[in-house]
Design a protein that fits this description.
There is one protein chain. The chain has a single domain, classed as 3-Layer(aba) Sandwich (Peroxisomal Thiolase, Chain A, domain 1), CATH 3.40.47. It is of the alpha+beta class. Helices cover 29% and strands 25% of the residues. The radius of gyration is 20 Å and the shape is globular. It contains eleven helices and 17 strands. The two termini are 28 Å apart. The longest helix has 29 residues. The chain has a nine-stranded mixed β-sheet, sandwiched between helices. It has a four-stranded mixed β-sheet with strand order 10-17-16-15, with helices on both faces.
Length: 421
Amino acid sequence: MSENIISDDLNAAIPSFFARPHVRQEVIPVAGGIPIGIERVMNPEVGIGGAYGTWGESYDNTHLKDLIEQRLAEPLSDDEKMNLAELGFVNRHHIPYLTDEEHLELEVEVGSRLLREAALANGWQPSEVQAVLIGMSGPVADDYVEQICRRAGIPEGALKVSVHKACDGSVGGLNLALNPGLATAGQTNIAEELYGKKVLVGGIEGLSRFTSRTRDKSALQLFGNGAGVIGVIPGTTMKFLVGKDHEAFDEEGVLAVRMFYPHSGQRISGHSMVEVSQAGPSHIRVAGLMHEPENGDAIAMAGPMGMVKLFVRTGVQVVSEVYQSYQRLMDKLGMPDKPIAVAIVHHANYKINKLKEKHLQREGISFPMPWLLSEFGNVCAASNMIAFLRQLPSLKPGDHILFDGFGAGTYYDVLAVAMGG
């Protein structure tokens, strides 16, 4: 997306996701019917496919204001209205108020459909899937991944990993699936366990449910529902090159998020804020500590400048370190001029991503960072996987791709991979 179309005219330029020609739209029979749209993507050259989509009514930037005012029972003042087109967002998808039981049924059905479609996009039956890693900011149930796998027809013995690192969740899951260096003593080395197996990795974010519990007007305008799941065979269709994870606690609560998942809530100096636990016989939970809102709200955003400090400065540092490791590896392999074909960056908002790109260029680091998610809003852990699937048709065997995940907490996962095929 070029800067010259980031304007109020964007609403007319980009239609709703549901209007895309390859989206299959159906209705989930919950609360009178919730629309869902899913698009399958497959690149046979690299041997990778997947599925992505969203659910709920589609609200463009004009009609979103009406929904928010209805939920808050008060108008948005002019200084509270965000220029969403300038931030790269045209639509996001929301559901009505539901009971807890309806939320659970809806999101289990959404998740199971995405898993089945992603498996089929790769030419796999769900019964062939050997592991599922899903990032979620606020799961509707502690055993959500187990429930969606069971309904999708994925074997009970398949490894399930729930990754709760906010917007970094899906790239955190991919890093775990590919990078054997992330394992710690006494814990399963997930990458070694999954090498050569059929693995689904993604993010599923029911953020309309999540943000319905907040009165934060920025959060209500930015976030929406979305999901993306890809299928990989580690070491074959996607090969790990270099990568790292990084954490830096959000001391000021610039992006404070309530932890709707098991975590001790303790912060111990010198120890990771991420707790890894055995949640079931074949279920591992990876849960990151969050700076939670003081008022018990679901989410609280302090302002744009704090977001820049959190996500741009530290994010540039982490990407730079991984890129330097990548260059050293290429030198060692005798391919010093091998470029990063594209960077798949979390879509926090367009301005953050452009600023990050500008700072990286100052460090002498340059690669394409396309903006690909205008019809979704910020969909947290789902965004990297949706962006990858939208870029997937143009990738070639042997291309090197950089995944850049970051989010509240604050957590970062950055890795470079080689496409197989």
